[in-house]
Amino acid sequence: MTLHERAVLPGGLASPFPVKPERRTPINAVLSFLRKTLTIAEWEARKLRHDPTDLFTRTVQPALWLLVFGETFTRLRAIPTGYKSYLDFLAPGILAQSVLFLAIFYGIAVIWERDVGVIHKFLASPTPRTALMLGKALSAGVRGLPQALIIFVLSFLLGIHINWNPLALLGVIALVILGAVSFSTFSVIIACLLKTRDRVMGIGQVLTMPLFFASNAIYPIKVMPGWLQVVAHINPLSYDVDGLRALMVQGGASVDGLGLDFAVMLAVSTVLVLIGGQLYPRIVQ
Questions:
Q1: Alpha-carbon gap, residue 182 to 159, rounded angstroms
Q2: Average pLDDT, integer, range 113-125
Q3: What is the SS3 string spanning 21-73?
Q4: What pLDDT is attached to residue 50?
Q5: CA distance between the termini of the chain
Q6: How many CA atoms lie less than 13 Å away from 31 in the CB half-sphere?
Q7: In the chain, which ranges are E strands?
């Protein structure tokens, strides 16, 4: 609309006053990007209402890790963690694991959206591709929050010394979202390259266990062999777990430093979202 064009009122009548177009400033561009990103995230998160049982079925595995693996190794005292109990050490790692397992198969949902024609509508809209990718990634973070709540409840019931400091809880929420953004975007990138559900499922199954076991989720990095320590230090999950361990448990401490943990997760998320935004249109080709 130009300066001399007139707005159209309800009923098809033209306004007698010309409407000044919105100025395209950097601030307006950023606000528009955020508005579109949050719209996509809200649309994706709304799917939870249609299948809320999915949240509870996904908590079975982390609950088994805490109840079976955690309780057993707490009695054995076989892993030197320096914490009050092995459960205190394990709980943040299981929280990160549940986020990983939730997010790493996110690309399958994107392939389903392509098959039913949803992605074609997204790509036909003026929404930036990066906003589409970031919105979907944030919705994965929203899906991870109910799981985090359930793991907190289980941890409390098992006597784990939870840190209830509000700032620490906000930090936990931020790391859960960053972890979900990183791994869900990675899954979408794989989907854009492979383009079939079976291949994405296979790659996801291949990657989840190496990412989990080659991290500090269930044992400290210092007890690993040298070559595995190198792998653990370049594994983003290790930094996610390290930050969660410092914030989630009373007396917890970050080995690498909270600043580095957040910086690594933010950097990985940013790079993957930018790459995913570039590759997103390829899924329909």
A1: 31
A2: 78
A3: CCCCCHHHHHHHHHHHHHHHHHHHHHHHHCCCHHHHHCCHHHHHHHHHHHHHH
A4: 64
A5: 34
A6: 7
A7: 6-8, 14-18
How many Cβ atoms are within 10 Å of 275's Cβ, its own excluded?
Answer: 17
SS3 8: strand
Judge contact between 73 and 87, C-beta under 8 A. no
Q: What type of residue sits at position 175?
A: L
pLDDT above 70 as % of the chain: 86
Sorted by where each begins, the domain ranges of the chain are 46-284
- 128 is written with which tokens? 């930036």
Cβ neighbourhood burial of 164 (10 Å; 0-12, 13-18, 19+): exposed
Reply yes or no on whether the pLDDT at 273 is more than 80. Answer: yes
State percent of the chain over pLDDT 90: 28
**Tokens standing for residue 43:** 């649309």
